[in-house]
Write a structure and sequence with these properties.
The chain is α+β, with helices and mostly antiparallel strands. The protein has 34 helices and 27 strands. The protein has a six-stranded antiparallel sheet with strand order 22-27-23-24-25-26. The protein has a five-stranded mixed sheet with strand order 19-20-18-17-21, covered by helices on one side. A four-stranded antiparallel sheet has the order 13-14-16-15. A hairpin with a 5-residue loop joins strand 23 and strand 24. The longest helix has 28 residues.
């Protein structure tokens, strides 16, 4: 349908764009970045991008439910739609409806003036064929019928017969489109027929019935659906599908042609928790997530996980890591995705790749805790990944594994930001009710609320709680700084507890860290003790195996005594001293080397005991000297079996030196990222937006002027005498020119230039597009046009 326009008003979308001020164009570019990036050369390109279906879809996704309802009213209004006719269809205050209409115009989804509004190209396709849940116009749906099907309807409505399909359809459409005649026809409907119409009018306007396109006479036995079909109140558009025409749907809805009004923003009740309480709880969680992330990467450094051929990390490795961290598999997958996206974890570049920490991990561990936290949460907020998908089934019924391509979603970052920004509106220290909060999010952007939306929202909120962005369901002060693009690390620094340099030794061989430990002390405690519980305070337990682990890493008994003696604020219990000394006496008494393997011991009685131990028969020990025993088992297996049976052997080098078994800090040689490519364009600054507006305006004026002037085209790379003469004339007369130019990268552009000099193979002049003085190589000029008296029109 060709939009009508009032005399004196722009007839085309691009002409309307030319009437917009610089501030209005800047607002358009700011809110629809896909129009502004890459920079358009003129307003013709802006109009083309703005009317593209994909661009319209992106813009519609940002609208709230009421603004979409206003757009539906414009689409459904009679031609030409006016502001007054649109407002009459809305059950809302005029100021609110006006604001929604201005929003649509600001986004260039609707253009024109109050006397004649137009929907931009591409918007109707993006909305779909059923705006506001109403069907297509009667003249459109009747295209599904031929003359044989139309004649029984003409007879039932008392209309004259026709010999052609088009006049017959036009006769029926005229009656249905007439509100008065349609009201009379609807008044003849029975109660059952009205119920069918009401159900279809509620939306969607399609229904299923057998033989929907079979011609039915008015006097034949009829069901309610057949009665409606015989009178054209519903139309069989397919063999088994009927559709309620738009005019009938609007009449059935009566005073609410757009359905239920969405003018009222849903309320979201909140629980007041207090800002300091929320920040305190979240800061404790931030400390926990830092500890878990570091422990996760340390585990992968000591025992790397194999990278699957198809990418990702196997289910068994995920379970192993979850067990070692003592957290759920879902939380482990979340940590894996974040540290990987943050560049702390990558697959090695070997023929059998493994998941290993990167060199950046070593730098990250030395940074202050607030900087480490900031890196993780900023990555979580923006990463195009959905960790909640891990463990679910994809389209091929395959399980989605951690770090795989299938867990990528380009809109994940925008979704998290949208949820947190809505949470921000609840106020400082206030946690909204989840169900009401989901309803609010749906109202704010209904087109983005897909299936299982409540589950998605609750998952994002749980992830935010895990990383300390929220506390007890409320957004923290440092979460607000993160959303605002401020220094989140500085915001959380005061809330994080200061690292401490001491521990508290207990008589039951536990060691309590009442806060986060300094990195050096935390590393030593992780080596000599196992974490038993964590939270505000971390409880370590010292055992035989943990002490042996420290000694295997090269720590002596004296060094361990010194560690606890200097770092413990409480007296070192006697039991801990005895435990260290006992392990030290046994540690290294046995030496294991390669024969296949051998054992030697200065105490012949120990070897006699081992060779007589039936539990060690699988090692096939053979004594060849009072202090030496051989075994066919490899050294690694021999060490594991002996340690499992209570012995404390150490490995020995061929020279007889003790082999320190501290695990190497293996690192990935190259960082490989398996993330979904983000589709969001980079966000330009305000200065860039304003510069872009000037460039587009200048380019558009130049393009229009060039179309009305004779242009001298040249062969690329050749400056003709005519071109040179025109440039010299422009310099002498002080006139502006329209210049076609190809830069060194081969990119062509057009611009308005005020020449100041020509010589030496170069043109000097002021470039209106870039608002600066530029130098142009003459051999790169492709075309020149003289502008009238130096004035841009």
């Amino acid at each position: 349908m060709v939009p009508m326009s009032t005399p004196g008003q722009p007839k085309r979308f691009v002409d309307w764009l030319r009437t917009r001020s610089d501030e209005q164009l800047a607002a358009l570019f700011r809110q629809r970045l896909d129009i502004a990036v890459p920079a358009p050369p003129d307003l013709g390109v802006v109009a083309s991008r703005a009317t593209a279906r994909l661009s319209a879809l992106r813009a519609l996704d940002t609208l709230d439910q009421f603004t979409l309802q206003v757009l539906d009213a414009i689409v459904l209004a009679t031609e030409p739609p006016t502001a007054q006719s649109v407002l009459a269809m809305l059950d809302a205050p005029e100021t609110q409806a006006r604001a929604a209409l201005e929003r649509l115009i600001e986004l260039a989804l609707v253009w024109g003036e109050d006397e004649a509004l137009h929907v931009s190209g591409g918007v109707a396709d993006a909305i779909g064929p059923f705006p506001a849940g109403l069907g297509r116009p009667i003249d459109t749906v009747l295209l599904a019928y031929d003359l044989v099907q139309l004649r029984p309807i003409l007879a039932a409505l008392g209309l004259p017969d026709h010999s052609g399909r088009e006049p017959a359809a036009a006769e029926i459409a005229t009656l249905i489109a007439d509100p008065a005649r349609l009201a009379e026809l609807l008044a003849t409907c029975g109660e059952q027929e009205r119920a069918v119409l009401a159900q279809l009018a509620e939306g969607p306007p399609l229904g299923t019935v057998r033989d929907a396109q079979r011609a039915t006479t008015a006097d034949a036995p009829q069901t309610p659906v057949r009665w409606l079909l015989s009178r054209g109140l519903i139309v069989g558009v397919e063999p088994s599908t009927v559709e309620l025409p738009r005019e009938v749907g609007i009449a059935v809805r009566g005073n609410h042609p757009l359905g239920r009004s969405a003018a009222v923003r849903p309320e979201s009740p909140v629980r007041e928790l207090g800002g300091s309480t929320v920040d305190s709880v979240a800061a404790g969680q931030a400390v926990t997530v830092l500890r878990l992330s570091e422990s996760l990467l340390d585990q992968l450094s000591a025992a790397p996980a194999r990278a699957l051929r198809s990418g990702g990390l196997g289910v068994r490795d995920l379970r192993r890591l979850a067990r070692e961290l003592d957290v759920s598999e879902g939380d482990t997958a979340l940590l894996l995705e974040v540290v990987h996206s943050a560049g702390l974890l990558a697959a090695s570049g070997s023929t059998e790749p493994e998941w290993l920490p990167t060199a950046e991990f070593d730098l990250w561990t030395t940074a202050p805790p607030q900087l480490r936290w900031s890196r993780l949460v900023s990555t979580w907020l923006t990463m195009p990944r959905m960790p909640a998908l891990i463990g679910q089934r994809d389209d091929k019924d395959k399980a989605i594994v951690a770090l795989s391509y299938e867990a990528g979603r380009s809109g994940a970052g925008a979704l998290r930001r949208r949820i947190l920004e809505a949470l921000q509106d609840a106020g400082r220290g206030a946690a909204p009710d989840l169900d009401a909060f989901v309803d609010l999010l749906h109202w704010l952007a209904p087109r983005r609320s897909g299936p299982n939306f409540r589950t998605t929202v609750s998952t994002v909120l749980a992830e935010a709680e895990t990383f300390g962005v929220t506390g007890r369901g409320a957004l923290t002060s440092f979460g607000r700084a993160l959303l605002a693009g401020a220094d989140a690390a500085k915001a959380i620094a005061s809330a994080l507890p200061e690292p401490i340099d001491y521990v508290l030794c207990q008589a039951d061989l536990t060691v309590v860290a009442p806060g986060p430990l300094e990195p050096e002390l935390a590393s030593e405690m992780a080596l000599v003790a196992d974490v038993e519980s964590s939270g505000g305070a971390t409880v370590y337990r010292v055992t035989d195996s943990s002490v042996r682990r420290a000694m295997d890493a090269g720590r002596s008994a004296d060094e361990l005594h010194e560690l606890f003696g200097k770092r413990s604020r409480t007296p070192v219990p006697q039991g801990l001293t005895y435990l260290i000394d006992d392990v030290a006496r046994r540690h290294g008494a046995l030496r294991v080397g390669a024969a296949a393997a051998y054992l030697r011991c200065d105490d012949p009685a120990v070897l006699a005991e081992m060779t007589a131990d039936r539990a060690l028969e699988l090692l096939r020990l053979r004594r060849i000297a009072p202090t030496v025993v051989l075994s066919r088992s490899p050294v690694v297996e021999l060490l594991e079996v002996l340690r499992a049976h209570g012995y404390a052997p150490v490995a020995e080098s061929p020279e007889g030196a003790v082999v320190i078994s501290s695990p190497d800090a293996r690192r990935a040689s190259a960082r490989t990222r398996q993330v979904a490519r983000a589709t969001e364009p980079p966000i330009p600054t305000e200065e860039q937006i304003n510069t872009l507006v000037r460039q587009v305006q200048a380019g558009d004026r130049a393009a229009r002027q060039a179309r009305s002037q004779s242009v001298t085209s040249t062969v690329p790379g050749v400056t003709t005498a005519t071109t040179l003469g025109m440039l010299q004339r422009a310099v002498q007369e002080g006139r502006s020119i329209w210049l076609g130019y190809v830069n060194a990268q081969g990119s062509a552009s057009q611009r308005v230039v005020e020449p100041t000099s020509v010589g030496g193979g170069f043109l000097q002049g002021y470039d209106h597009q870039n608002d600066e003085n530029r130098t142009f190589a003459l051999h790169r000029i492709t075309s020149v046009a003289m502008l009238d008296d130096g004035q841009l029109v």
